[in-house]
What does this fold into?
Amino acid sequence: MFTSNPFAELSASIAPAVMQTYVVIMIVLVAAGTLFDIVHKGSAKYFFENWRRSKSKKGAQQVDGGELVSLAVKTGLVDVLASGEFCNARRRVAHLLTMYGFVLYVITTAVMVFAYPTPAVATPDIWPSLWWIGGLMVCIGGYWFWFFIRVDVVAEGNSPFRTTQADLFVLSLLVSVTLGLIWAYAQTRGSSWSHAWFVLYVIATTVLFGSVPWSKFAHMFFKPAAAFEKRVSYANGTRSNLPAAADKPEQFGKPAKHARHY
It folds into this structure.
């Protein structure tokens, strides 16, 4: 099961060209949805205007090119790759499992669909194995977050089945990946339900990638830019009109020993 390419087996009933076209359409939907989100919400306009204001603000310190590169590297390593914005350890681990699992799942899906679309081209065992690992990571991280970490469930005592539009991304992701794993398992077992599971998998996946303008999918592209702008704001002394963090009392302009009173 863990070494079988489910998409190659599917080629017996669906032409590889159809599967490949579907993947391309999903990529186009994500790109178009993200651009629509940027234009509709004015995210890019806000980012660049805020950047311009911080650079021209009175008292702002000059940040040279070398420091900008250093800040960009820190943003990539800490804020993006390590999800440093999460202070809660459990939330960070759940997020990292989901994020890296999703990346692994998407990459291996593309590799198997485009490079090994039929049984005639043997699929190296590593790709289906990584596909399963990625999918399981998404499920572990996603369901852990959904049932045990969400603030409105843990702190406010709401039902874990209560949903809002903000939950569209994580829910559609979990449903899509879960159905994909169920379909792959059913197909390897020769279940008569495998086609039904596949139809549901396609529907959920289409919702996931087609609902970008209404979900938080595009946030994964905005957050690195926002994190970088925040680091630059701290470096040039503007902080985007925000007070210094409690763990950085020196940015209040007061000695650290006085920070306990704030």
Notes: Residues 6-57+88-237 form a domain with the Fumarate Reductase Cytochrome B subunit fold (CATH 1.20.950). The CA atoms of residues 68 and 212 lie 31 Å apart.
